[in-house]
Amino acid sequence: MPKLWDDTIDAHRRAVREAVLDAAAALVAAHGLHGLTMSRVAEAAGIGRATLYKYFPDVGSILRAWHERHVEAHLAALAALAAGPGDVGERLTAVLTAYAGIEGARRDGDELHAGAHARGARERLRAFLRDLLAEGAAAGRVRTDVPPEELSAYCLHALSAAGELAPEAAGRLVAVVAAGLGVTH
Amino acid sequence: MPKLWDDTIDAHRRAVREAVLDAAAALVAAHGLHGLTMSRVAEAAGIGRATLYKYFPDVGSILRAWHERHVEAHLAALAALAAGPGDVGERLTAVLTAYAGIEGARRDGDELHAGAHARGARERLRAFLRDLLAEGAAAGRVRTDVPPEELSAYCLHALSAAGELAPEAAGRLVAVVAAGLGVTH
Q: Choosing a second label site near B62 at 20 to 30 A (CA), which of B33, B78, B169, B179?
C-alpha cells in the first residue's frame, strides 16, 4: 500500500481511539466507574460493538488507556509551563500551582493512580521538577541547602494535600510550599 | 467476685494480650506478614493455641490490634512532645521531627494503614497538630495568613515524603516544612 494510504488508516485509527476514550471519559464523569460496559462505550462513541473490540479487549484496557492519556496531558501541560516565559521563580510557581490543581481534582479511591503507568509518570514528574528546582537553585531563587531531589519529593507530597482541601485553599497551599522551597521573587 | 479479683483477672488478660501482640510484632519483623499463623503466634507468645483463640479469632484481628496499639503509641508520643517543655516553636519542630521519623519508618504496601482505625488516627493527629499550629500562630511563631487546619494538612502530606527519602534526609525535610510554616526561632 502507498504511504499516503497508511497515513490515512493511521489517522482514522487514532481518531476512533480518541473517540472511544472521550466517550468512556464522558460516561465515567456522568455515572462513575461502575456500570461502564463495552456496549455503552461503543454506543457513546458512535461505533459498533464489534469495532470497539478490535481496539480494546475490555473495559479495563479502555480505562487504562484513558488514564494514560490523561496523565500524559498533565505532564505535557506542566512541561509547557516549566519551559514557558518568565524567570525560573515564576515558572516554578506556575508548575506548583498547576500541580496543586491536578491534585485538587483527584479524589480518594482513585484506584487508577495505583497502576504501573501512574508510578512511571510520577517518576518522570519528579525528575522534571528536580531539574526545574536545580535550575532555580543555580539562579539563587531556590534554597541550596537541600538537594533538588529531596525538594522535589517534598513538593509532590506537600501539594497532594490539595486533594483534601477546599479548592480556594490551593493558592495558599502553593504559597506555603513555595516558602518551604525558599522561592524568592 | 470481689473487686480485687476482677482487677487481677483484668491485669492478667491485658498481660496475655500484650504478650500476643509483642509476639506477633516480633514474628512480622523477622519474617514479614506472610506465614504468620495462629500456631506460630501462640508458640512465640508462650501460650496454648486454644488460649490464643479466646483472645483473638484470627491472625487479621491480631494484626489490627497490634497496629492499633502501634498507632496509639505514636499519637501518645507526639502528644507528649507537644505538651513538653520548650516554647511552641521548639515543641512544633519536635513534633514534626518525630512525625517525619514515623513516616520514614513506613514502607510502601503498608496495607494496614488503609484501615478505618488508621483513618481515625490520622484525623486525631491532624486535629492535634492544628491546635499546636494555632497556638504557634497566636504566639507569632507560625504564619497567620493560612488557617491552621490547612497548615496541618500541609505538614502531614509534606512529611510523608520521608517515606521515600533516605533516613538522613529527614532533618532537612523538617527544616523545609518548618520554613513553609514560617516557624521562627
A: B78
